Amino acid sequence: MVFQPGNSYICGIESRKSVNILQDQGQIVGVLFRPGAFHCYVQAPVSTLTDQVVNISDYFNLDINTFEEQLFALKNKEEKIVIVEQLLQQSMPEHDKTVDLLNEVIDKIVYNADITKVEHLVDQFGISKRTLQRWFNQYIGVSPKWVIRRYRMHEAIELIERGADMTQLAMDLGYFDQAHFSKDFKAAIGKSPKQYAKNND
Hints:
Elements lengths: L1 E2 L6 E2 L17 E2 L22 E2 L9 H10 L3 H14 L6 H15 L6 H8 L3 H12 L3 H18 L4 H7 L5 H12 L3 H7 L2
Antiparallel strand pairs: 1-3, 2-4
Helix pairs in contact: 6-8, 7-8
């Protein structure tokens, strides 16, 4: 959720490489929800917001122009946080234990490089693949496979910068061949592994 004078919006998760340039003068107040948390405010799967930008007033009962004026009239950062928190608390839903579980699943993905397939999560959490896919679609906005791939690609960047062998790296990440690894890497990073390695020599 992004507040800026005259252009406030809610941005769903971006499944493709994206670049946001901030320049000149101005103020922005942003809210980054933990995985699954914004589902509480949506009456539909969060995947409907993936790669979308929508109006804040579509999900919160407020006059956005008036709210922006009140928010940016405040000089103190802490006061800005308070007024945004009050907005979120107006329609605060009941606690959803599924959000907690999904954060455990995502933490496992983030901190365990051995997780390269959805089946690894199925084995560790005892949740069926179909249920995981349904929950990720409903709460996160992308598939569990996408989340795994995204974090493994970030790890791949570090290994490439250290001079890792591309073929071995692809195998370690669960790919059957280097071509599929290269395709996924370019989709996430914007360059092929070889181009990235060359630019970082």
